[in-house]
Amino acid sequence: MSIEVRNLSKSFVDGHMAVRGVSFELGEGEMTAFLGPSGGGKTTILRMIAGLEKPSGGEIYISGQRVDHLPPQERKIGVVFQNYALFKHMNVFENVAFGLRVQKQRPDVIQARVRELLRRVDLQGLEGRFPDQLSGGQRQRVALARALANEPRLLLLDEPFSAVDAQLRKELRSWVRKLQQDLHITSIFVTHDQQEALEIADRVVVFRQGQLEQIGTPEEIYDSPDTPFVAAFVGEVNRYRTVIKNGVTDLGVLQFPAGNVPEGQEVVVIVRPENVELMPWSAAADIQGIVLATTFLGEFYKVDLELADLVRITAHVPKALGGALREQERVALQIKATKIFNVA
Predict the structure, then answer these.
(1) Which residues does the UniProt record annotate as the domain ABC transporter (predicted)?
(2) Mean pLDDT throughout 136-146?
């Protein structure tokens, strides 16, 4: 089941343009993450696909069928909201069975389908509990089972883990990813958490101010950002302006990504902290720096450095090296640029 969005836009009565001419295609069976800051348009696009918001312009296709004129119940879409939206007066079984009862399915069909879904979401034995008797993670799994009850052809998840703590969030996204792969259901996952998007998705769509900035695999988004915004929003980056002459910047010789290096014009060089390598100081080193501070972050040390012309840069280094560094220590550096952007 594929999704195609053509020139989609949405403006509200106050004149605010939430989505501006967005177009993309998503493949069958993929988990796609909509990523971006608040106000980027990702939830509005999700709601238009679901039929909960009417587009101001553009077209939406599901498996080649145009659906933007259809009511939500005719699109065969399951939606999981961030606030669970469970019926408090219904127990777990009845919450999951709700859509099946609306469809007037036979009692034996409802019984079998609900029990199968509760097994899939690891809630068997909790059929008789009410939402206020469940943990946050359990409530979210009930919401997911209910969204899957009518066998939707598309699953939409709107920041479904925002109400749970960090450790449970990590467990739930791994669990949802496995369930999505097992069911092979095309899914869209809205999040503002870059790590969540990179971990859970086959492809990531980055939005900003109602426009699509980039679409690609997690690796493409992280390693080959198309715009300065994507580079800065996804992961941590160092950036500085420089002019490249004969392949050399004013900081010294950098390792550049494949492709042409702009010669003689001002550019913004993007460097990820893990691409800054520290070595023992040498007077002959091409790039030298002074350690300003080190911060232990569990898997690595974050090292803040000052280079030539008071340029500040951050490196992520292994624990064995980071723990041995001292403030004001002089070091040599090798730097690999992630991306070069021309200054507009």
Answers:
(1) 3-234
(2) 90
